[in-house]
Design a protein that fits this description.
The structure holds 2 protein chains of 2 kinds. Chain A is of the alpha/beta class. In chain A, about 35% of the residues lie in helices and about 15% in strands. Chain A has an 11-stranded mixed sheet with strand order 1-3-2-4-6-5-10-11-9-7-8, with helices on both faces. In chain A, helix 4 links the parallel strand 2 and strand 3. In chain A, helix 7 runs antiparallel to helix 15, helix 9 packs across helix 11 and helix 9 crosses helix 12. In chain B, helix 1 crosses helix 2. Chain B is mainly α. Chain B has a domain of about 40 residues. Classes of the chains: A alpha/beta, B mainly alpha. At the A-B interface, helix 9, helix 10, helix 11, helix 12 and helix 13 of A face helix 1, helix 2 and helix 3 of B.
């Protein structure tokens, strides 16, 4: 059963080929036997009671498309009555008293939550090695990382421990692990999916999206995830199309832009080969390929590593040991309480980014760093605007390499380079996607597709057409 | 621009983080690497560029001033490290 896509599972449940309880038990057994460390919390009892509920809705005929489908929820989304740690020791004791809008929506749809997935602490990382709960293994090669920060979600879907998973993407945290784990991941336009109850890292960049086996599944799930939310002041009040409607449109005449800057030094040859081959595949399907230029893309890394730490240093001031989360033992005064709760509660990378942000925002340095970065952010965004006057979709690699080995990257700046092709999409607020495009040395390679604002429908259509012509997305790791 | 260990310790204090000597040593190297990376931005002429604070051209929505939240104070108190009489308790600030 675990080899079925969400679309197939939905049909199976409707036709009574299996029940949601049977399906849920099957996935729970798979999770139990797995050694990937993909989950922080497995919610077995909740899952079984949600599955029973779903079966009764299915029997009564008032089920929706996703009713009864088991999924894995990134541990960054608040779930009422269930631990929501965001991969951090400081939130290890945090049992959320409320549901994130996304959790509420998936519940209302009648879906079954199998558990909360592992992630880099507070969504900061590209390898899932920054989690308080330990690293996650890549199902394609357990000595390697799954990518991050949504590493647990990506590994869970790749190993079919779940039909799909939720993720969040601040600088590549859906697309990069999707690429490294050989699955499909979509980061929607900023403002498309509610951020209410999603633990904030960098508020002008964070966006939630689906991590799935295929573009068709991503469309099904996005239909439920997307939409205006009164509780999120940055949520866009804009109609949500039926993302499945145009999946089968022909892509003949589609204009694909290839940014030359995405194929310069630092890109692994094996990855480049797969990406160029997949672009040829699009040409054979009738798409027109032309070169575009994103001249400021080289500055995406420094710009992001000013903007994101500034926002995070401000956002994370709320984690102070006073109202919720971890508090140090026997604080001698209030300052000691703040200092020790935070120092003991945060991991190394989080502290580093808080310090960078604190410095960049401090008196005398604001103009040199934060203001400068905001100006370059504008230039990066304008590059995309110019390119989208000529083309419909931009394509290139997601990650400069395939999955790297655990403990292989030791210094932070080298790790930041793992997201060199994904960061600018968040800075501009555009939608982006990673789809499986082939293998290099038996490790999956993802193709990145970047669309104009609110063009998720186009990305999903293009991705689905590719997946009708290729079978990269149905390849599975050994023994799956 | 390069930071020394003393400055790094000051920044840590501003951010309400304690770091010991060996952590400060490592943090100084890492933070300077990151600052070197950031220095690349000085190559770009941004004199006439408007700063971009947010990806969407949108202004904050206004809404009617009506109560939309129910009182969840008990639930929020229940998960706090230390509480008393509807307060979050911390060590004494004023004797």
């Amino acid at each position: 059963m675990h080899k079925f896509s969400v679309a197939e599972l939905s049909k199976g449940l409707k036709n009574k080929d299996f029940s949601s309880v049977e399906l849920t038990k099957h996935y729970l057994r798979r999770i139990d036997r797995s050694d990937l460390n993909a989950f922080i919390t497995v919610t077995e009892d909740l899952a079984l009671s949600q599955a029973k509920e779903a079966d009764s809705r299915l029997a009564k005929g008032n089920a929706n498309v996703l009713t009864g489908i088991p999924y894995a929820h990134k541990d960054i989304f608040c779930t009422k009555g269930i631990k929501t740690s965001a991969g951090s020791k400081i939130l290890d004791p945090f049992i959320s008293p409320y549901d994130a809008t996304l959790s509420y929506k998936l519940n209302t749809e009648g879906m079954v939550m199998l558990g909360k997935t592992n992630m880099d602490e507070l969504a900061m990382g590209s390898s899932n090695e920054n989690s308080y709960y330990g690293p996650v293994n890549n199902p394609w090669d357990k000595k390697r990382v799954p990518g991050g920060s949504s590493g647990g979600s990506a590994a869970a879907v790749a190993a079919r421990l779940s039909a799909f998973a939720t993720g969040t993407d601040t600088g590549g945290s859906i697309r990069q692990p999707a690429s490294l784990c050989g699955i499909t991941g979509l980061k929607p336009t900023y403002g498309r999916v509610s951020r209410y109850g999603m633990i904030a890292y960098a508020s002008s960049l964070d966006q939630a999206g689906p991590i799935t086996q295929s573009a068709e599944d991503a469309a099904l799930v996005l239909n439920t995830m997307a939409g205006f939310d009164d509780k999120d002041s940055t949520s866009m009040n804009k109609d949500v199309p039926d993302y499945t409607e145009n999946l089968n449109n022909s892509i003949k005449g589609l204009k694909i832009g290839i940014p030359k800057e995405y194929f310069s030094e630092g890109l692994d040859d094996g990855v480049a080969k797969v990406i160029l081959q997949s672009i040829k595949e699009f040409e054979s399907m009738g798409a027109i390929v032309e070169e575009v230029s994103l001249p400021n893309s080289a500055y995406a890394v420094p710009t992001y590593y000013i903007v994101a730490p500034c926002e995070c240093s401000s956002n994370l001031s709320r984690l102070d040991g006073v109202r919720y989360g971890y508090r140090c033992d026997d604080p001698k005064d209030l300052n000691d309480l703040y200092l020790r709760s935070r120092s003991e509660g945060f991991g190394e990378e989080v502290k580093r980014r808080i310090m960078i942000g604190t410095y960049a925002l401090s008196a005398g340095y604001y103009d040199a760093y934060y203001l400068k970065a905001q100006k370059v952010r504008q230039l990066i965004s304008e590059d995309f605007k110019k390119a989208f006057q000529r083309v419909d979709v931009i394509m290139g690699p997601v990650s400069p390499t395939t999955a790297f080995e655990l403990d292989a990257i030791k210094d932070s700046v080298s790790m930041y380079m793992a997201d060199i092709y994904t960061l600018s999409v968040n800075l501009a607020g555009l939608p982006g996607m990673s789809i499986p495009a082939g293998f290099s040395n038996n490790l999956p390679v993802g193709l990145q597709m970047i669309g104009n604002y609110w063009s998720e429908e186009v990305l999903l259509n293009v991705a689905h057409q590719f997946q009708t012509q290729t079978d990269w997305h149905v390849h599975l790791p050994e023994n799956t | 621009m390069s930071l020394d260990k003393k400055q790094v310790k000051e920044i840590a204090q501003l951010a309400r983080l304690n770091i010991n000597d060996s952590e400060a040593q490592l943090a100084t190297v890492e933070l300077n690497n990151i600052l070197n990376l950031m220095a690349e931005l000085s190559e770009i002429d941004t004199e006439h560029v408007e700063p971009m604070a947010h990806p969407l051209d949108m202004s904050q929505r206004l809404r009617e001033d009506v109560v939309s939240e129910t009182d969840l104070s008990e639930e929020f108190q229940a998960i706090a490290p230390k509480t008393g009489k509807k307060h979050f308790l911390v060590p004494t600030v004023i004797e």
